[in-house]
Amino acid sequence: MLIYHPIKPVFDENSKVLILGSFPSPKSREAGFFYGHPQNRFWKVMSLIFDAEIPDDIEGKKAFLLQNGIAMWDVINSCEIVGASDSTIANATPNDFETIFSVADIRAVFTTGATATRLYKQLTGRESICLPSPSPANCAVSLDRLAENYKIIREYL
Prior knowledge:
Helices cover 33% and strands 19% of the residues. By secondary structure, the protein is of the alpha/beta class. It is globular.
């Protein structure tokens, strides 16, 4: 069954970097925002690299992203997927990134995980900087190592 991306992108004219996941997990779709699974480490990593508290609510997370010059969305607009498993993604169509690029001066696009990186290149022909997935399934990468990798984001802000 084809599933459509239910979360609007976060960006404004001051956004300098774009962070893209592949497609929201069932928990993120249920929560109504990016990286909504309680075990996902994305927001913990962001709090470490910006030395800030990350709010628990969606409006606070949006404000945090925008205050730090970060745009956020996912590569895929619609696809078939089983659960949260990126390896099952089929019939993917990309989001329309001109929505963001026409408003913001994006200096770098970061993709979180190998699948997001591969699909961004495959579906758009564009390059991105691959960051390790913050998913709890990627337990081989420690929180500290994730933060070390994600620090590159600050270089483009």
